[in-house]
Amino acid sequence: MVLRWLLALLVVTTLLGLFANEHWMTRRLALDGRGPGQQAEVVDDSGSGGASHAELVTSPDGAQTMRCEIKPGFEWPFCELQITPKRGELDLTRFSSLRLWVTVQGPQKDAGPAQLRVFLRSFHPGYPGHGVGEDLKPHEVVFAPAGLTLPVELRLSQFMVSSWWAQTHPLPVPLMGPQLDRVRAISFSTGGQVLPGMHVIRLDRAELIGNWVAPETFRLGLVMLWMASLLGYLVWESWAVRARLRRSMRRSQALEKLALRDPLTQVANREGLNRALELLLRAQGELSFPLSVVFVDADHFKRVNDEHGHDVGDQVLTLLAQTLRANLPRDDLVARWGGEEFVIVMPQTPAEEAVAVAERLRAVLQRTPWPAGLAVTASWGVAEAPNEAGLEAAMREADQAMYRAKHGGRDRVISASA
Fold first, then answer.
1. Separate counts of helices (H) and strands (E) for the chain
2. What is the tens place of the pLDDT at every residue in 186-215?
């Protein structure tokens, strides 16, 4: 039950966590030239030998608009609106996408919709040049905003290093490919198919989107939560098992206290054994089986009473009971069945093991110093009960096996299955 609740809680936590990481842990950074520490400016091809001219107009609503007069006479005419952070560099690896509210107008060679080139320009000390202008590595995406639903969302993984820059700025292998951890500028430029004329790029808003906790880091945290929860469950289960064992030991002690004792030998009498068996089966159920029953009868006990008196006979019975109890595990039950006859009940013990225990006990009796210098032996009968329904039959079979041992010469162990 606990494991099911734990799994249900982990599943709910995981689903909520994934949803929260996707929708509630979003971080945004506006990059539209209006935020503190940002600067908007325009760049055109006049600095490279062209004649185009760009100007920046800030609308009353705060939108940044670049008006660009593309003029012929330069191979690759362009104008671009550039946003730079005043603090120097941005680490875009903490973000996943760039959202743009942007419109573009201007004549194109193919008479198609005006294209927009978006550049993320990054710096590294290992790049050739002086780390400014064209020496910044451009990561580029080209698309036509016309007809698209705003905002347009560009995944940062879609930005690729411009091929023309890679050809003119050879890099060592470790510096090849996209690098967005030190971005110094974001540029919005006219496309490569522009015709002379007026071109307009209006940037209403641009923002970087990411998660406060990166999805891969968050998922790793969820995996660690699962592992920690399962480890905690295993620790708890181990503690619970030990607690159950302690309770089992207390129940065993309670069984012994509750059982009715024989006043002479201080072991359970027949009624006490029945009570103890009832409690054992209630506590452990089918885990008690296979269960073995051993009947023990002192040999020639009438002769002991006749020749040495009942006091010596009582001492023999008491010592016999104490010897049996002292040489058995705590979970085994010992009871005086009547007269000089005793019964041993061994839970979770097959007949073969019970026979071996009886043989060991028989040898112990031979080494025991008895009152009045007597040599006391016993006859043993063993039977196995596979389940609770077979317990009564096992008692009869063990009793019969004991009588077979007595008729077979005494001082021996006989199994009902032999």
1. 7, 17
2. 999 998 889 999 999 999 999 999 877 666
Task: Report which of 233, 240, 250 is spatially closest to residue 331, judged by C-alpha positions.
Answer: 250
**Does 159 or 31 have the greater pLDDT score?**
159
Residue 351, sorted as left (phi over 0), alpha (psi -120 to 50) or beta, turns out to be: alpha
DSSP-derived secondary structure for 6-42: HHHHHHHHHHHHHHHHHHTSEEEEE-SS-STTEEEEE
The answer on 133 and 106 residing in a single domain is yes
| Domain assignment present for 253 | no
Q: Where among 153, 183, 211 does a domain terminate?
A: 211
Burial of residue 224 (number of CB atoms within 10 Å: 0-12, 13-18, 19+): exposed
Q: What tens digit of pLDDT does each residue of 352-397 get?
A: 999 999 999 999 999 999 999 999 999 999 999 999 999 999 999 9
Task: Provide the H-helix boundaries in 56-214.
Answer: 163-168
How confident is the model over 117-142, as pLDDT tens digits?
999 999 998 888 766 778 899 999 99
Same domain, 179 and 304: no
Same domain, 274 and 229: no
- Residue 334's identity, in one-letter code, is V
Specify whether 219 is located in the same domain as 163: no
Phi, psi of 221 (to 5 degrees): -65, -40
Q: Are 103 and 145 within one domain? A: yes
Burial class (CB in 10 A: 0-12, 13-18, 19+), 128: exposed
pLDDT tens string 256-286:
565 578 989 999 999 999 988 999 999 888 9
Q: How many residues does the chain have?
A: 418
Both tokens assigned to 337: 């069945």
Residue 310: give its domain's CATH number.
3.30.70.270
Do 230 and 286 lie in a common domain?
A: no
Using only the alpha carbons of the chain, give its radius of gyration.
47
132 is a domain residue = yes
If one counts the domains in the chain, the total is: 3
Q: What is the mean pLDDT of residues 286-295?
A: 95
Domain range for 338 is 259-415
Kindly state whether residues 226 and 195 are assigned to the same domain.
no
Helix axes 351-367, 301-326, angle to 10 degrees: 120
pLDDT band at 184 (very low <50, low <70, confident <90, very high): very high
CB burial of residue 90 (10 Å; 0-12, 13-18, 19+)? buried
**310 and 398 share a domain?**
yes
Kindly state the DSSP code that residue 127 receives in the 8-state scheme. S
Task: Answer yes or no: is 162 within a domain.
Answer: yes
Does some domain include residue 254? no
Paired with 261 in beta bridges are 268
